[in-house]
């Protein structure tokens, strides 16, 4: 997993240099395009704010963009990370995405927070000014297998409405946001 804090102090003849994270085989890449990269570099199940995904976000554009995650599910139960992150032009951001209620729900039910099989997370990436959508889809994350599947919102039209603001695909049982 990625350490979230790294400070480099220059000494004498040396200059401080920017830390560059290169995608690793253990990183779960949700999106990697010419415009942006969104990846999970690890999880912190014991974070004080709840089960946490360590996000690595790259904006390759000359204008700011926003990454956002909406209400989805963890092992079939509805949870909302209520997460969004603005990334300035040509910048990199490390961000914590928390599922606040999940940790407490696990304690109450006796479930081990480390035994998550599937996280379904609708994601939207858009331009900060103007709101032009760059990507919108549903990411299905399998933490135990260290893999992710991303389905673009336009790829599957076989969705039916669910009771908690998502559409469920009849063929794959995956979720995505209802169109507004």
- Total DSSP E strands: 14
**CA radius of gyration:** 17 Å
> What form results from the Cα inertia axes?
globular
Cα separation of the termini: 36 Å
Main pleated-sheet profile: 7 strands, antiparallel
Helix and strand sequence: EEEEEEEEHEEEEEE
Number of helices: 1
The helix fraction, in percent, is under 10%
Q: Overall pLDDT, averaged?
A: 81
Describe this structure in words.
It is built from one helix and 14 strands, in the order ββββββββαββββββ. With 180 residues, it is mainly β. Strands 4, 5, 6, 7, 9, 10 and 11 form a seven-stranded antiparallel sheet that branches. The longest helix has 10 residues, at 100-109. The model is unreliable at 157-164 (pLDDT under 50).
Topology:
Elements: E1 28-32, E2 36-44, E3 51-59, E4 65-69, E5 72-74, E6 77-79, E7 83-87, E8 91-99, H1 100-109, E9 119-127, E10 133-142, E11 147-152, E12 159-161, E13 166-169, E14 175-177
Antiparallel strand pairs: 1-2, 2-3, 3-8, 4-7, 4-9, 5-6, 5-9, 9-10, 10-11, 12-13, 13-14
Summarize the structure.
This protein has 180 residues and is mainly beta. Helix content is 6%, strand content 46%.
Short descriptors:
single chain; 180 residues; mainly beta; 1 helix
């Amino acid at each position: 997993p990625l350490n979230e804090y790294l400070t480099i102090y220059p000494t004498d003849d040396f200059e401080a240099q920017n830390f560059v994270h290169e995608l690793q085989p253990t990183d779960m890449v949700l999106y990697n395009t010419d415009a942006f990269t969104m990846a999970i570099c690890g999880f912190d199940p014991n974070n004080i704010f709840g089960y946490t995904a360590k996000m690595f976000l790259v904006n390759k554009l000359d204008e700011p963009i926003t990454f956002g995650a909406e209400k989805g599910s963890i092992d079939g139960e509805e949870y909302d990370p209520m997460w969004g992150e603005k990334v300035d032009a040509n910048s990199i951001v490390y961000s914590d995405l928390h599922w606040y209620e999940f940790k407490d729900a696990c304690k109450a039910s006796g479930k081990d927070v480390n035994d998550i099989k599937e996280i379904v997370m609708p994601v939207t990436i858009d331009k900060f000014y103007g709101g032009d959508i760059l990507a919108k889809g549903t990411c299905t994350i399998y933490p135990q297998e260290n893999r992710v599947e991303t389905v673009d919102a336009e790829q599957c039209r076989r969705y039916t409405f669910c009771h908690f603001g998502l559409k469920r695909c009849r063929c794959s049982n995956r979720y995505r946001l209802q169109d507004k």
